[in-house]
Amino acid sequence: MSTAKKDYKKVTTNSLFEMKQRGERIAMLTAYDYSLAKLVDKAGIDVILVGDSASNVMAGHETTLPITLDHMIYHASSVIRAVDRALVVVDLPFGSYQGNAKEALSSAIRIMKESGGHAVKLEGGKEVASTIERIVGSGIPVMGHLGLTPQSIYKFGTYAVRAKIEAEAEQLLADAQMLENAGCFAIVLEKIPAQLAKKVSESIKIPTIGIGAGGDVDGQVLVLHDMLGMNTDFSPRFLRRYLDLGTQIPSAIEQYVGDVKSRDFPNEAESY
Ligand code: KIV
């Protein structure tokens, strides 16, 4: 197995499968708008997830439940206009696929047609397997999502680590196998014990992408605004911050306000 990085002109679902086979880790981040997606793509990310976390990050909702299919299409089409290389995966929002497979397929088709996204993601295990088969059967790639599935937060009642007990861990392993059989090209594993994530990753051929699932998965995903340090109130153990924008942005704005008030800005060189 070679772990050398291969430079893909455009990342596809097939590239991700090859990365797993080579042992090359997959790097995924969220993005919801044109300007940041452009920077994320330019920096060499493999996958951009237009996550329904836009409901929290962009709209300030407490959960991912309120975001609509129209909102997701708006965010995804902005991201697509920015991206040259990354594979763009778009979340099917709560209420757009749980009803039945036909409804799920028409939601997925709307995302593909109206945003230009490359794939969709949906949450759940065996209860969504036939829905996944239907969507994949129509030619749309599907990413699965197991473990902590935020669209079910009111069922769980908490954002705590999932599948710590044996029965839940066994069910998650079975669900991962089912999602692979149903045709998923990859699975997000959110907030589960690292040992379980390793076992899942070794038991299926498609890549696993972890968030709070340890290092023995095939790739990692973080919410962009969290890893850039924009949300100083959110500090789960799995989050590594690469910038401190939560203090840098207000400090830059304070300087600007001061410069305007003191008439330092604009100076002569900044005027026509
Ligand atoms: O919506 C999202 O950002 C996600 C990631 C946390 C995987 O689903």
Structure characterization notes:
The protein is built from eleven helices and eight strands. The chain is globular. The relative contact order is 0.11. The chain folds into two domains: 13-241, Phosphoenolpyruvate-binding domains (TIM Barrel, Alpha-Beta Barrel); 244-272, no CATH class. Helices cover 42% and strands 13% of the residues. The chain has an eight-stranded parallel barrel with strand order 1-2-3-4-5-6-7-8, surrounded by seven helices. It has helices spanning 13-22, 34-42, 54-57, 69-82, 101-115, 129-137, 153-156, 166-182, 194-203, 224-227, 245-261, and strands at residues 26-30, 47-50, 87-91, 119-121, 142-147, 186-190, 208-211, 219-222. Strand 3, helix 5 (101-115) and strand 4 (119-121) form a beta-alpha-beta unit. It has 272 residues and is an alpha/beta fold. The structure holds 3-methyl-2-oxobutanoic acid. The site of 3-methyl-2-oxobutanoic acid has 11 residues, from strand 6.
Give the helices and strands, then pairings.
Layout: H1 13-22, E1 26-30, H2 34-42, E2 47-50, H3 54-57, H4 69-82, E3 87-91, H5 101-115, E4 119-121, H6 129-137, E5 142-147, H7 153-156, H8 166-182, E6 186-190, H9 194-203, E7 208-211, E8 219-222, H10 224-227, H11 245-261
Parallel strand pairs: 1-2, 1-8, 2-3, 3-4, 4-5, 5-6, 6-7, 7-8
3-methyl-2-oxobutanoic acid (KIV) binds at residues 30, 49, 51-53, 91, 188, 190, 211, 221, 223.
